[in-house]
Design a protein that fits this description.
The chain is mostly helical. Helices cover 73% and strands 0% of the residues. It contains four helices and no strands.
Length: 120
Amino acid sequence: MNIQHYKQRLLDLENTLFARIGQEADQGRGDSIDSAYDVGDASVADEVASEKFTEAEHNSDELQQVGDALDRVAEGTFGTCIVDGGPIEEQRLEAVPWTPYCLKHAQRLEIAASLRPPTL
């Protein structure tokens, strides 16, 4: 496995996410400030701002996962499943280079998450 390939992909993604988060937060702030002329405009501006902040939050979560993957690269554990230490499939790493789980354990976690009752 070419760890340097994945490290570079993760670093590029990290830079992209930093930029995207900054833009989304700026757009969210700008939309809520610049376009509130009446109650209807304010409502639309609040909704757009909320969407931008939600996107920024999602990207921030992904950025954390990318950072964790870069930590695993530095520790020499990148490409191994954090559950059992087995190898993560190369196809999976190509698709989701920040994943800490092999396909088997990722699927088990998804099933377990779908079985949890919703919270209020």
